[in-house]
Design a protein that fits this description.
With 289 residues, this protein is α+β, with helices and mostly antiparallel strands. It has one domain: Endonuclease/exonuclease/phosphatase (Deoxyribonuclease I, Chain A, 4-Layer Sandwich). It has three helices and 16 strands. The two termini are 35 Å apart. Keywords: Endonuclease, Hydrolase, Nuclease, Signal.
Length: 289
């Protein structure tokens, strides 16, 4: 059966539209982390989690969401990227994320993986849509944040799940992205990675204006293996991994440091990957050709 045509969706997400904005504090500040002196780097902490929460995979335990909530509460990251989740998981973790960022407005985004046999979305065992998500805190509830999302044009035809990618424009100062690449065909995963980094992200930059860009996710590729994840890391870009399949990579105007592996205590088959981003807005990044 032919693969579903490549989809590249752009939509504007009103901040807090996934949960009622009225539930947020009325006296929230409107200061953005990007609103200060442009000569000073913006420092953010990013947490990557693969929760294996479909209910269908062998790594499912039913405990991943509770542990994710504990980790977010303990570490208070500024950005959270989520792989292998059900759609309502984003809303549930939105509430936790809001609690650790009181007075801030939270934007939450979700992108479902495709399902080739049905032509619909992949579903968790409970019938909810399955895919990837992203959480960030932004400056004001009235601000609209553009979300870019789609499925990769190359898929493993032996796998019914069509892998997806997702990006959110955070306050006009950062493009934060996540993806979960093919686990059944490593060459396919490399092709997906190459196309995302070399085509999709530059297209967003070309059409919407350049922003420093960070990508986190379970890429199902390793450094030093064949194929090597480093072959889809552009020159000058930094990359940090968990020693296995989860990676964070960023454009040349973002410095990555201070990697921390957060234990999930068997709740899922991946540790949490916590990385600090130092965004130098005065330093030119790798702009699209």
């Amino acid at each position: 059966m032919a693969a579903r045509p490549y989809r590249f969706l752009r939509r504007t997400l009103a901040v807090g539209c996934l949960l009622a904005a009225a539930a947020l504090p009325a006296n929230r500040p409107t200061t953005s982390p990007f609103a200060g002196d442009a000569a000073q780097p913006t420092v953010l902490r990013m947490l990557q989690l693969n929760l294996c929460n479909s209910g269908r995979a062998g790594c499912y335990t039913g405990r991943a969401m509770a542990r994710a909530a504990e980790v977010i509460t303990m570490e208070a990251p500024d950005l959270v990227t989520l792989n292998e989740i059900c759609e309502p998981d984003v809303s549930a973790l939105h509430g936790v994320f809001q609690t650790v960022h009181p007075g801030r407005t939270v934007v939450a985004a979700f992108q479902a993986a495709g399902d080739r046999p049905s032509g619909d979305d992949t579903r968790c065992r409970n019938g909810q849509r399955f895919g990837i998500g992203l959480l960030a805190h932004v400056r004001a509830p009235a601000t609209s944040n553009t979300v870019y999302a789609g499925t990769h044009p190359t898929q493993d035809l032996a796998d019914p799940e069509e892998r997806a990618w997702l990006c959110v424009d955070v306050d006009g100062g950062l493009l934060a992205c996540t993806t979960h690449l093919s686990a059944t065909g490593y060459r396919v995963a490399l092709t997906q990675c190459d196309h995302l980094v070399d085509t999709i992200l530059p297209t967003i930059s070309r059409n919407a204006g350049y922003e420093p860009t960070v990508l986190a996710g379970d890429l199902n590729l390793r450094a030093g293996h064949d194929p090597d994840v480093r072959s889809c890391t552009p020159p000058g870009h930094q990359r940090i991994d968990d020693g296995r399949l989860q990676h964070v990579t960023a454009t040349t105007d973002i410095a990555l440091c201070c990697r921390s592996l957060v234990p999930m205590y068997g709740a899922t088959d991946h540790p949490g990957l916590l990385v600090t981003l130092s965004i130098d807005r005065g330093r030119p990044g790798r702009r699209p050709a």
